[in-house]
């Protein structure tokens, strides 16, 4: 039911514009009582977040074979971030309310999407594999490195949202390079 409500709400956001849609319109469109809607989603940002995280989970599951075809952490992160850039560019207007809501409801114990894949889980898996292959340092746990990488990803995304003329692909590439090579001056 929640996926259906979120899907119908997203169609409404697309048709009417996110800012113009009310919770009452979502309830009417989804054919649920307002009380039912509010029991599951207190605000429309929660509905949007549910839809985005469901999309992310589905998209990450579809990316698994592509990530398995590459043999280096840098190539895997490049493929992962390229797919993310493509999705983000197509949904740019929804990212600011999504990010504000996620940070506003931040819970350190709740870093993952329930019942699905999330970006940090995927990053952790890629990094753990790279650690076993001696491609990435192993003195820090893979989950710790993935958490740090996620913030590089988020910083690149926030910079792109703040400066519209930037290329998200370039911002993500800079984040990948910083993660892989650190901030040291590149050797010539």
From TrEMBL:
InterPro entries hit by this protein: Homeodomain-like_sf, HTH-type_TetR-like_transc_reg, HTH_TetR, Tet_transcr_reg_TetR-rel_C_sf
Superkingdom, natural source: Bacteria
Gene3D superfamilies in the cross-refs: Tetracycline Repressor, domain 2 (1.10.357.10)
DNA-binding region(s) in UniProt: 22-41
Keywords: DNA-binding, Transcription, Transcription regulation
Positions of the HTH tetR-type domain: 1-59
Residues passing through the membrane, by range: none
Family matches, as PANTHER family: HTH-TYPE TRANSCRIPTIONAL REGULATOR BETI, HTH-TYPE TRANSCRIPTIONAL REGULATOR RUTR
Listed name of the protein: Transcriptional regulator, TetR family
